[in-house]
Each structure stands twice: as C-alpha cells, then as structure tokens.
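General statements about sequence and structure are easier to judge against a single worked case. Part of our work consisted of pairing the sequence of a single chain with a tokenised description of its backbone. The amino acid sequence and the backbone structure tokens for this protein are reproduced below.

***
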Amino acid sequence: MKTILVLGVGQIGKAITKRILEHKPDRIILHNLTKKESDYCCVYFSKICKNIEFIPSYGDIFLPFDFNKLTTIEEQLQNKYELLNFFYSDLSPEILKKSTLYNLVQKWKPYLIIDAINSGTVLGNHYKPELILSKVSNEATVDVDTSAEILLNDFVPKAINFVYSLKLVMEDFKIKKYLKVSTTGLGGMGMNMPYTHGDTPKASLSFALMGKISAAGVLHQLLWNLSHTTHYNISLLIPSTFVGYDSTKFEPIETDMGLIKKFDNPKKIKIKDGDILTYSKGICDEYLEFPVVRAGENHVYSLYELSVLTAVGQMEAITKEEVANAAMEDICGKTNRNMLNYMDSGMLTSTFAGKVMVEKIKSEIKLLMQKNNSTSIATGNLGVTVAKRLYELHIIKQVCKTVESLKNIDIKKLCDLVTRNIENNKDLIIEILSLGLPIVMEDNSMFIGEYSLFPDKGCNLTITKDRLEKWIQVGWVDLRVENILFWKETIDYVYNDAQKVLKDKGFILNRDVFSISNDYDIGEVLAYYYNLQEKGRKTCNI
C-alpha cells in the first residue's frame, strides 16, 4: 500500500498535502501535536478527496512514543527518569526504537516522509536562560526537578535523537525520501532584526528568537551530515521570508499570554522618582477584538504589523503554494532548492506572488475594519517596541493625516492636538492598555493597565530616571514633545528620501519607495525607518 507520512499539517503542511493528492497515494498519515488539529485536517482533506484514506495521528514527535502526549513540563517531570534515559543514554537501536518517529514508521510503513513541523520553534521555544539563572542562583543546592527541567528543555539532545531515529527508520524500513521544510528563524533577515515575535527584548534579539535560530541550525547541520551518508535521500527546504496565511478575521487578540481581555478603567497617574511602578485594576470579561491575519506560529498580526513585516527590505513574503510547488519539484527529482546542496542561493525568497498575497490580506483586513468600525494597529506579536511605535504613529496620523500637513504644523500645536486626541479617545486608551502598553504624557502623568509587557512584574519596579527612560524607549507609548518631534522629523525624512530615490534612474531595492506617499501608511513608514537604520535584509542589486 502506497503510504505517505506528513509531520506538521499547518498551513505549509496542508499546501504540500494538497499537491501530494495529485500523485494518488493510497493513504496519508496526518500527524500534528494535538488530536484536535489532526482530526480537523483529516475531515478537511476527506471532503476534498474521497479516494484516499486520511488517518489522524498526534503527539510530540521529539518525545518517546509512550510519553508523546505529555504537553507540560510538569507532566514530563513526573516521568523524568524515563525521559532523561531516552535523551541522554547511548543512542542504541533499543533506545531509538522507543522514539515517536520510529513507532509511526513501523506502524504505517510510508515510502515518503514530509516533515513540515516548525522544529526551530518547537525545539528552541524553551531557551530561557534568565529563568534557568533565577532557578539555580536562588538556591544553595539545586533540586532534582530543577536539574531535570533544565536537561529536558535542552534542544540539542532532542535534535540529535530525532536525526538518529530518522537514520534508523530509513535503514530499517527503506524510506524512499525524507523532505524537511524548515525555517531560517529570522525570515531571511540578519542579527539586526527589529522584531521580537512577542518575547520581551533582551538585547538586539530576544531569547525566543535566539533559541529558534540555534535549534534550527543544529537540526540543519545534523540533516546535512545525514545526507552525506550513503543511500539516504534527504532534502531540506527553507523559506527565508514571511510565508502565506490561514485567514483574516475579526476576532479576540491572541498573544503568547493567551487571549487578551479588555482593561476598562483608564485613569491618569503621576510618575515620580523613587516611587514603585504600580498597576491599575480594571480587567473586564470582554476580550479585546479587532481584524487580524492569522499566520501560523506567532498567532495573529494587525494590519500595520503586517505592513512592517512584509515591506520591501524587511521580511517580504512568499505564498504557501509556492513553497508546496518547490516541495513537489524536489520530491519529483528537481533538487535545485535543496538547502543541503547550497545555502543562500537555495533559499525560497520573497516573490511577486507573495507581494500580491499581502495586498489581498490588507484589503481583507481593511474591509473587516470598516464592517466592525475598529482599528487594527498592533497585537504585540511582533514585540512590544514595534507595537508601541505603531500606536505612536497612529495617534500622530489621527491629527495629521498627510506628510504635508505634518510638515507645516508647529510642534507645540501638534503636541496639543495629540494630547487632546488621546485624552478624548477612551476606546483607544483601553485598547493600548489592554495590550500591556502604558502611555506616558509630557507632564509626567501616565495611563497604565493591570500589567505591562515591559517591564514585567518580575522586574525591579522602583522608578528612577534611567530606568523610566528605558521602559519608555522599549515598550511605552511615548506622547512627550521630544518623541512627537522625532516622529514628525522622521516621517518627513522618510518621505523626502523616497521622493529622492524615485528620481534616481538607477537604485538599489532595499526599501519600497512606491509605498511612501503624502497619505502615509504607518506600517510602511516604520519599515522604511528600519531599512534606513539597516535593520533589514542584506541589500541586493537589481
């Protein structure tokens, strides 16, 4: 029986599976982390194709088969000795045959394995050095559970174990091919990337992203070495850009903290040196909602987060269908996109179709905004700094809708308009505070909700001048004169730069000059600003 095993049936996995249907296998095993995901995928594909058997499978592919339904570290610690033995023993066939991968292949005997799990995120998600440091430095002796937790969260033995299990299944069951669709971790951008993907920024990149790119790198190198072993057909495809999307919806906003509830009690307070930063009470049972695009691992993005993320010179975009096409070409023998053969030139980079897709998403979100009479400024899923900057730009645009009007207005008048606008816009204040972004005013007064993304409640909250400035720079909506003036001048500079480049008959495409108009898009302005700071892709000549 002709069987295919698909690991990770998210948006890319689904797109590849759709193409696989053309080859008419007898059955396809659809494996996800949860039963709900796999059952949904089987129902979805059964409606599309009646002649193929779709079988759901679920569990953590990196855990041993008998323990792959353990979803929390607490559950894993209850079985710590078995798990530690699995990950840290000699990688004998007896150990490897306990793996989830081996058990799946032994049961279903597929001839082809397609792995579209975002392994970098899954493996690197537990890279939390601050948490480890706090656990080991606050105790005279580290207890067994703490040691076990640190060992079980290490992605290196998990990646090694997985690749050795893959080696064994390819030997034992004569697998024709293993195709991995993976990630760069940074969407093709460099270590100057200005986004944190929801994690609080620690340095130039967050620990969440550092863990992701490190885990992906370890896995890629292991697969590269496995591919050099005789008779193993291993391919690695890596999109280096924003990939596709699931849907656009008006829905509750979801971040790494879960669904966000509205803060409904905005009150001004004064900030003074030496005081302790205190949070206000006022969370209600209503969820914060506005139109978003649902785009896979990082939950949802607003209209303007999408603008920043997919702008020319930033992450840009490719469609999931194009990734699926590249996967099918590789399966059929055209290996020109196999990253194990070569790196930069082999990556699946942004495309014209990806740009068209982004414009389609934006149109859908704008229609949802009109229908629901709402904004779609920021969710925080690109990090607190991007969110706070987008709200600052949005508030300025509310009172000065064109570059020309912004250029001609006196800074004092602009600040007065901004202050009046925010103080008379309770709904906007509620939205900003609900997302964990305090708002600071020129007179050292502020609005604050029940929590802040930065600093979090575990930090030292005693207010000092330096500490306050850092908080504001990283994650507070700053409506003070100095910051309003900065954005006034920056928007004007961005507009003038775009006009200048447009007049140049030969130019380098590292920023989208066509997106900067008198009626400016705040997401495109922020992306352009990042590009001018060289916080984007490596420049490419055209």
Observations:
- The radius of gyration is 25 Å.
- The mean pLDDT is 90.
